[in-house]
Amino acid sequence: MTLGGKQAVVTGSNSGIGLGIARELARAGANVVLNSFTDREEDHALAEAISNEFQVEVRYIQADMSKGNECRALIEKSGQCDILVNNAGIQHVAPLEDFPEEKWDAIIAINLSSAFHTTAAALPKMKAAGWGRIINIASAHGLTASPFKSAYVAAKHGVVGLTKTTALETAEEAITCNAICPGYVLTPLVEAQIPDTMEKYQMSREDVIKKVMLERQPSREFATVEQLGGSTVFFCSDAAAQITGTTLSVDGGWTAL
Questions:
Q1: Residue 4, CA atoms < 13 Å, CB-side half-sphere
Q2: Cβ contact 142:101 at 8 Å
Q3: Contact (CB, 8 A) for 3 and 233
């Protein structure tokens, strides 16, 4: 399929899952707006590199997803917004009674509230254009829970709920809203944790991945950013025009348990 003529805004997309999704959307022909909270030369150079690779227009716009006004400003600065991918997210692990209040507030703001603000700003543009796709990157933790991740689990459950409400409010228009729920994904951040974990447990790389990191993922394999990008492109396709308000688990069977 081709997404030629469409423009996608992907939050939190200068690395990891967001970058993988942005690249696959560009590969499919969409113009892309990259985003993160930094504003470095390398951020803009990354946009230029993707633009040259796929021969589409790619821009980088700085915006802090913890601030509602900046979330909405990102959409306005982007201009056209046919495809919105709400991907920005952070994590913190601690018992409930010890969970820092500022971490709770930041996780809810970046992982959940940002999706509300960007969606609210993007919907008028999509309605005016007569077409739109909203893809929220939730998590297996949007469908199940783990201890010590109260804010993350609460936020990702909220993202799934927001997805359903958005879908119902746009059901009679050519606009869909769905959530992708990844399990563990091999990103540079995860990759960097493997050597230290190998040393801590005195295990091989393979054993660390299968017995420690992917203990809850039945496939014992990471999802890849390219797979998440492909799932996002599918949701933008005509084949998915009647798929809305649902979740797609890319978790190696985690939520089947």
A1: 4
A2: no
A3: yes
Q: Are 41 and 16 in contact (CB under 8 A)?
A: no
User: How much of the chain exceeds pLDDT 70, in percent?
Assistant: 100
Examine the domain organization and report whether 82 and 125 are in the same domain.
Answer: yes
| 121: its two tokens | 């700003």
Rounded to an integer, what distance in angstroms lies between the CA atom of residue 172 and that of residue 21?
27
Catalytic residue positions, numbered: 152
Query: What pLDDT, on a 0 to 100 scale, did the predictor assign at position 193?
Result: 87
Mean pLDDT of all residues belonging to the chain: 97
For residues 189 and 219, which has the higher predicted lDDT (pLDDT)?
Answer: 219
Please give the Cα distance from 117 to 36 (Å, whole number).
Answer: 15
Q: Over the stretch 129-140, which tens digit does the pLDDT of each residue have?
A: 999 999 999 999
Q: What is the CATH number of the domain that holds 179?
A: 3.40.50.720
Say if CB 89 and CB 111 are below 8 A apart.
yes
Tokens of 175: 């606009």
- Token readout for 89 is 């997210």
